[in-house]
Amino acid sequence: MADRTLPATPSVAAAYAGPPTPAHEIPEVSTLQTELAATGSSPIETGYGRASSGKVWVAVHTEMPGVTAAMWDWWFGWHSAESARYKLWHPDAHLYAGLAVDNTAEPIPDRAKYIGNASYVDEYIGPKLQQLTIAFQNPLAHGFEVPDDHTTILARVGSAVAPLGVGWLAHQVRPIAGGCEM
């Protein structure tokens, strides 16, 4: 494990050093099922900005050599049970993690460990510490196509201290030669 978060890749650094993506190019949440189709690419794979609705949007294309979608399902079923595990993802920004139901040791499929469960996290988003609830949803129930060698991690994100929905989180992981991409 690295003591600090590694720098962004050159393509990510360039996208975020540049201007925001124009609002008319940003997909609305209601189109994510199409935007994150099992095949093809989104028009914008890495960028940031505000959609026409005013919602903040961030996208980062990441290639992961030697990684599979099944590994992502294992990770999401395992990492939120302990803060030290959550910090592995982002040592600088992730401070705390806990689960509504800790079933990480149960003999159930990895997806069943997080879908329908909630993770409570304290993490920095930009310079501000946020206390969040991440309620993992079944992507199939929301109209996503998820082939067997893919995964889509879908969650409703809200405040952990007030009954307020903040947004959606979607990680699409699909195979490419030598690994996967998100």
The share of residues in helices is 10-25%
Supply the helix-strand structural class.
alpha+beta
SSE ordering: HHEEEHHEHEEEEE
Indicate the overall shape: globular
Cα radius of gyration in angstroms: 16 Å
The whole-number mean of residue pLDDT values reads 93
Distance between the termini: 21 Å
Low-confidence regions: none
Number of domains: 1
Topology:
Blueprint: H1 10-17, H2 32-35, E1 47-50, E2 56-59, E3 63-65, H3 69-78, H4 83-87, E4 94-99, H5 110-114, E5 118-125, E6 128-137, E7 151-159, E8 165-176, E9 179-181
Antiparallel strand pairs: 1-2, 3-9, 4-5, 5-6, 6-7, 7-8, 8-9
Could you characterize what this model shows?
With 182 residues, the chain is α+β, with helices and mostly antiparallel strands. It has one domain. 18% of the residues lie in helices and 32% in strands. It is built from 5 helices and 9 strands, in the order H-H-E-E-E-H-H-E-H-E-E-E-E-E. The strands form 2 sheets. Strands 3-9-8-7-6-5-4 form a 7-stranded antiparallel beta sheet. The protein has a two-stranded antiparallel sheet with strand order 1-2. The longest helix has 10 residues. The protein starts with 9 loop residues before the first helix and ends with a strand. The model has no long low-confidence stretch (mean pLDDT 93).
